[in-house]
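[SOLVED] Need 3D model of a two-part complex

Original post:
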Amino acid sequence: MAVHKRSYHSYVGQLTPAWSRFLIVSRYAFRNAFTSRSLFAYFVLCFAYPLGCAVAIYMNHNLRLLEMFHESSFFTVDASFFYHYQNVQAMLAFILAALIGPGLVSPDLANHALPLYFCRPFSRVEYVLGKAFVLIALLSLVTWIPGEILFMIQSTLAGVSWMWTNLWMAGSVFLGSAIKILVFSLLALALSAWIKRKPAAGAALLGVFFFGAGFGQAINAVLRTRNGTLIDLASLLARIESQLFRQHTTRLTAVPADRAWIALLAISAFCLFLLEKKVRAYEVVRG
Amino acid sequence: MNDQRIIFEDVSKFYGEVLGVNRVNLSIPPGITSLVGPNGSGKTTLMNLMTGLVRPSSGRITVLGMSTDEPERLFRKVGYCTQFDSFPKGLTGYQFVYSYLRLFGHPHPVADQLATQAIERVNLGEAAHRQIAGYSKGMRQRIKLAQAMCHQPSALVLDEPLNGLDPLIRAETIALFRSLAQEGLHVIISSHVLHEVDTLSDQVVLLSNGYVVAEGQIHGVREEIHEHPMQILIRCNKPSELASRAFCEDYMVEARILPDGQGVLAKTRDADRFYLLLNRLAQSGIEIESVAPADDDVLSVYEYLIGEEAPTK
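Solution:
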């Protein structure tokens, strides 16, 4: 029997707060995401429309310009304006999620790297949160943050009374964006966890949206129902957006808003279930 | 005492209907412990169980006095290295080790210092800031080892850590394991290279089909295998005389003169009495140059107990 003298001592120094450790995963995921120049260029492109809107709002309040064209205003900044802004940015945000999302979890699964994360004081929830944070942060930067800035610009130029009257729109911009960010992020992470090849996971995310819409409409047409729309994510999000911005929907196949909320909650829960099944230190093989 | 051991109490793990390990009872002291067994014998499952990465279907595991259900405490004391090349894309060796230290909650200066120390200890200092993608197999094994030991754990669990290492690096790595064990660490390794396990380990755990078939110091395990007579190699000047005298004893099974005529390979059911006989023979004029057990090693024990050809001789 070997004699072992315990001369070895573990680290007993100070530690960073446990809540902040998921940001380590995010930091490396951010760095990986922006190694692609084309992705970075696309990310910059996502700010073009908000920038255009900001310029338009400014021009709409520029007296010299208005006098030049003999107009009292070029357009009205109202719920419809922000509704359209939200739709444009949602499309850009979705493509951004499809470009970044698949590269978040699938490489770790392909490399069998999850055991290395989970043999630290680091939970599966923190891992998913760390990965999701990348999408949440980037999608926020292209959706609600510029949206709120536009609202503030308009409030500054139109006056306090406009701001108080339309404050609910600021809430709708945030809530509508938050729902989309949550759905896009969960969907992208779930597909990234189940499909190990990055391009295939990206294609699957696009497929969920476009084929979902196609199948939904086919079901509606064949079965003469509106329930097919429940698998059409784009329509569900549009329905909730129209409710948030008090826009009247003219689509015959639109489902009631409460059903759209329930369907989105169910989809999000299913994505969490998929992540729970896959994000494990070891895959459970059943014989 | 139990807070210095890794203890399995009647532990079973089933993946659905597939057996991982069954009714394992082990008490692993500090030092180097090797898990030996053919593919699918349950080595990796045992390692995953002791690192808390999978939960037992039944039974109880305590690692240095801690339950494996306490990850926050457990993972500060346990370092783990998988058999896979699990490297996030684009990282350098230093970043790989450093980032995992940050997951432990070490602030930047501490993580930087510990990462550098661990990398130096596995002799990768010069390659620390190169991308892992450009590392050789041996370098990858060593950087994995560095990430397992960087946070100064009390137990290191290493799945196939010697795979892919060239002889020189292999010797260096074994020396590192020995020095860690001398410092009081538990070093648990799985390996297929049996002759290295033999020279490296303080104790072995032999596994087959999810069952522990033997555990302990290899010499003790060998003595317990009564159905296979002990083989003892004796170098002496009168092998014929030694063989004939040995045959008079009822515990002798076989005595074969070596091809070079300079010794005898004896098989006996009672090694202790045979050694006493050798003492008497030495006093009676036979010059005995050396006496050494011939099958008192992991390879022989493996073949006797598991009954398959050893994976790597």
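Edit: Chain B has a mean pLDDT of 85.
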